Amino acid sequence: MEDSAAMNAITVASPKTTQELAVEDASASDTTGPHQHGELGGGAAAAGAAGGALGEAQFRYKNAVSSLRAILSSIPTSQTGRPNESGSTATGSLSQAEQLEIEKLEERSSNLKKELANKNTYLKNLIDQLRNLITDISTWQSPCSV
């Protein structure tokens, strides 16, 4: 019953013969889902092409979502297995040499951040001076009206 309604709708929308439409409708129903059976406007061939791409995209989306869920569910398990790699480790579990190395690296990081802030300030000053110089040059090059 649904097939005949779809064929009637397609017959109205397309100038093809009923036999051609029946063949195209059968091939389109192989590639489309059940929710796209009675689309109007583009004919059965257009519905089949769009439905195939849509079906493939839906399939890839569902696979990606299931993979992402599996990865997200495995994250808490893997982090409990490796406490040394996470950011919140107990200091008692690290050796003295590792603690010293971490402190040195944190101090170096702090120094590099300060140096970067100083260089950014210096660079901003240079840019301001360049703007002032460009303004002065454009003022000198402008024609004087006497």
Would you write up a description of this structure?
- The chain has four helices and no strands.
- It is mostly helical and 146 residues long.
- 76% of the residues lie in helices and 0% in strands.
- The longest helix has 46 residues, at 96-141.
- Helix 1 crosses helix 2 and helix 2 packs parallel to helix 3 (43-81).
- InterPro entries: MED30.
- This is Mediator of RNA polymerase II transcription subunit 30.
- Residues 1-47, 74-97 are annotated as: Disordered.
State the gist of this model.
The protein has 4 helices and no strands. The chain has 146 residues and is mainly α.
Task: Write a concise keyword list for the protein shown above.
146 residues; mainly alpha; disordered N terminus; 0% strand; flat
Radius of gyration: 35 Å
Helix content: over 70%
Structural class given helices, strands, pairing? mainly alpha
Strand content: under 5%
How many helical stretches? 4
Report how far apart the termini are. 93 Å
User: What sort of overall outline do the alpha carbons produce when their principal axes are compared?
Assistant: flat
How would you name the oligomeric state of the polypeptide chains in this document?
single chain
Largest sheet: none
Low-confidence runs of at least 5 consecutive residues: 1-47
Average pLDDT taken over every residue: 69
Got a strand count?
0
> What letter string, H or E per element, gives the SSE order?
HHHH
